[in-house]
Structure formats: structure tokens, C-alpha cells
Design a protein that fits this description.
Blueprint lengths: L4 E2 L2 E3 L9 E10 L2 E4 L1 E2 L13 E5 L2 E10 L3 E5 L11 E6 L1 H25 L3 E7 L2 E7 L7 H14 L4 E7 H4 L19 E7 L3 E4 L13 E9 L4 E9 L1
Parallel strand pairs: 2-5
Antiparallel strand pairs: 1-2, 3-4, 3-9, 6-7, 6-9, 7-8, 10-11, 11-16, 12-13, 13-14, 15-16
Length: 244
Amino acid sequence: MTNDLHGRTQRLELSDQNLRDFEAVVLDATPEGIVLSRSAFYPGGGGQPADHGVLVWQGVETRIVGVRKGDDLHLIPAEGDPIPPVGTVVEAAVADARRSALMRTHSGLHVLCGVVFRDYGCLVTGGNMDELSARMDFDLPELPAGFKQAVEDACNAEIVADRRIDVRVLPRQEAFEIPDIIRTATNLVPQSVQDVRIVDIVGLDTQADGGTHVASTKQIGHIRVGKVESKGRGFRRLRIQITG
């Protein structure tokens, strides 16, 4: 079983990516950050931004505009919003539209990564995402003719195939026995991580990943590949939009 604690906070989103509403106790609170006993706010990482949302307590509302990782997981309140006292029970809600869009986008990037690795053997050198838009960089010295359209068509074929997206946790040694489990040019999984979270687009892409994802490729929508940019030394940047 994975360690789902970050400091004093139990991370609920690791086991339930669809959880949006939950109850928690305030363990620490300042205008710089609020620490809860449990949280479904994704703290950001792997290119995926942190969640937003609200805490409701004693008839007032505190907007959450980010998350800061440290010894504890600190939910960042909007400037000027009231701060719940330590010991308060809060009703928390993750902003659903933002999280859902980021889940679709993150899964779309994994489809893109899987297609480019399968069809061209290229590793990822960087990436970033926002709601329904993203970019991913690849080590691709030569740009094949018709590359952009071929990648877009292949990605959308995988979406139509409605491939299941599974999440599981494996001991580090077992995880790294999976062929091509690291699709980045540099292994970004710290040595201290002994339980590795695996995201598997069944039949297409299996990667170590800590982000949130939809349950199947069909839920992504449609991928449109924008311009392919040269980033020097054979690196190519692909920008995508998620629609539908």
C-alpha cells in the first residue's frame, strides 16, 4: 500500500481521483497556508498545476488558490480571506471544472507521449499543462514528413478506442522492472520514493506518474496538435488543445 501522507495530511486524491468534496480538521493555519488532516487538493507536480477550491466553516468561506508543498501540505488561501482557527472542522470542495479539465489534459498528454514513443521511439524532455491546453517536448532530431497530422490522427484513434486508464502502486524494484516505465530522458522519480504510482493506458502507455487522470481515453475528448516548434539540438515542442 502506498504512503498517502504528506506531512500530517492524508492525501485523498491518490486513491480517489473523482473525489471533490470532503471534511477535514484544521491542524495549522496562517494567511500563508492552511494544513488539514486530510485533503483531496492535488498539490501540483509533473507539469500538472495545483487544484483550486473552497473551505466552508462556521458560515464563512475561504477560497483556496493553490497548494504549497513542504514538510506539510499547505493550502494557500486567497489574499484577505478569513482563516479558520486550528481545530475547526471544515467542509472542503475542490473546483470541479478546473480539476476535470486538468485530468483530461494530463491523460491527453500521456496519449501523446505513448503515440510518439510507439511510432517514433522518442523520449520526453519536458512538458507543462493548463486547463485543456498543454505542450510536450521530445528528443526528435529529424522531423518526418506529415508528422503533425500523423500524430494527431493516431492520438484520436487511441481516444476512440476507449482504452482503460488504470492506476496502481508498486514497490520501486517491481515498478522499474516494467519495460520503458520511464518515458522521460531523465528519471524524475527520487531515490527516496519506494512505492511508485503507475498510470497505465492499457495497451498504449505505462508510466510512473503522480498526477490525476480520467478513467478511459474516451473521456479526454479530442486532441488537436498545433504547430511543431524546434527548440534546438533536435528537440521538438508539440502543443495540443483538448476539445469536445
